[in-house]
Amino acid sequence: MSIDEVAGELYGLDPGEFVSTRTERAAQARADGDRALAKAITALRKPTIAAWTVNLLARHAPKEMAALLDLGDALRSAQRQLSGDKLRALGTQRQQVVNAMTKRAGELAAEHDRPASEQVLREVGQTLTAALADPDVADQVRAGILPATVTYDGFGPAGLVAITGGKTSAPTERASTRRPKPSAEDTEAARRAEAQQELDDAESGLQAARTDREEAETAAAQAKSDLEQTEARIAELRAELEHAEQQRHFARTAEHRARGELASARSQFDRMQRWVDRARARLDEK
């Protein structure tokens, strides 16, 4: 049993099972005489709901997650090359993929009986965006062992600042590698490219929101139409029920009258039968 195996197991569990299973694995390590492993297991943090949702996504949609993180490599490469056109194209694609993956994460969470709130989905989207920028975050996301969500301040390989669980981590070694100081023109081009990318992301987000609004309006209109049809059908059924109740009343009255007439007819028949019997008897006497 290794810490990687235990972490892989724990972060794949429902959050409600994390602490008890962590305690069991730590106790098992101590029983095996591996106190260092027991200490490392105990130090593993229970994931937040949003982090668990990201881990769930990594485990149940590995191909889609790999495609997302490959996009991060392309974005960092374009940033290093100061390729404005490429950054704009990849930036739009990034927003679309992040939105799609966030939606998929929400679906998976619902399937596992933990529907995601808007705040949780927002944190999932922020974490996926951070994974695109920071290779270290990407590794955690890919492995599905994220204890807390991550936000990212800025974009590009230089000066990475990843904020994990409310704490700021230092730039990664790969990000802090020394590079020649860019010229003023390159800096301005990079600034404009980043601003353009932000605009493209915002417009992409606006388009996604517009689509969601239109879909919601269509769904609301359909629901209203369905309600009106149902209410109309209820009114029809109520009218039919009222008519049927009237028919039942008439039928009940007719049945009551018929039973009276039947009783009267039977009584009359009995009288006539007795009359016939008496007549026959007198005839026989003569």
Automatic annotation (TrEMBL):
* Region spans: Disordered: 164-206
Residue ranges under compositional bias (Basic and acidic residues)? 182-195
Domain of life per record: Bacteria
Q: What is this protein called?
A: Transposase
